[in-house]
Amino acid sequence: MELKRLTHLAALLLACSTPAIADIEGSADHPLLGRFGDATISAYQASNYDVATLPSGPIANARAVDNQLELQGRVTRIGYRLPVAHSALEVARNYEATLAEGNFDVLFSCAGSDQCGFGFSRYVLNLGVVFPRGFDRAAFNESFRALLAKRADAQGTAHVFLYFMEDRANNRTLVRQIVVESEPLQLGQVSVKDASALQAALDTDGSVIVDGIFFAADSATIEAESAEALEQMAELLRSAPELAVYIVGHTDNQGSLDYNLELSQRRANAVVEALSALDGIDAARLDARGVASLAPIASNAGDAGRAQNRRVELVLQ
């Protein structure tokens, strides 16, 4: 989409007034969709490539959902706050008009539990499926509306999910927005340390992070693209027959500590098993240990930091 058209679409919702309360640091409107009037951004999360689960129909039971859409791509989640004088209906109608102007097709829309289902609000706000837990304060009442829209053109495919709710007890109307821009994952962004680089780091620091080891989500299954990193680890061990190392598995802090300790141990075990299957590697030189999220190298507050913390490390015995 041309920049001029993007700017026009974003401006359709923007009012002339300046928000009385500043947006949270690091946040911004999405280029495809501006804000309503004097809304301010109270919550924000953006990922270059992630998974998003969006409701695509009524939800009667938040724990048994079959109306949902699983998407991957660039994901931006924004929480807006408005004066409650702007009803959920008023805000929703403005967004609907803006989306239509931007050639989006509405796939699903609803209002209140009668149309959306009695489990809809809980699924969207409270389970950590659509929005992360603690993303922004939620208001549970019947004054809510939601819609899911899609646009597919030469520039790609984009989905927009919007949830509007009136929180009259706190004199505000809240808007939660997700934009998913579907695009192929760009692989080849991680450079694998060769055996000599691994040895140099061990000599200097006594430990080294092994980039390029990938596991299936919530699993100890090693992905096929890990083959090169495993081979470089094996080459290190072949070139230094006296070397003995701990294979240490690390996770982020999502989920319970007990579960992540077990998962990180299984992942460390899987690496030892994969190395032992390669020629010239004696499993007796490898000691698998899982430490869960107990040794982070970045903040677990965001996706980028959590990705760094999920890692495999070699440590000298």
UniProtKB/TrEMBL annotation:
SUPFAM superfamilies referenced in this protein's UniProt entry, alphabetically: OmpA-like (SSF103088)
Localization of this protein: Cell outer membrane
Coiled-coil segments: none
Residues in the signal sequence: 1-22
UniProt-recorded name of the protein: DUF4892 domain-containing protein
Keywords, alphabetical: Cell outer membrane, Membrane, Signal
InterPro entries: Bact_OuterMem_StrucFunc, DUF4892, OMP_bac, OmpA-like, OmpA-like_sf
Domain OmpA-like: 202-317
Organism: Franzmannia qiaohouensis
Domain of life: Bacteria
Pfam families for this protein: DUF4892, OmpA
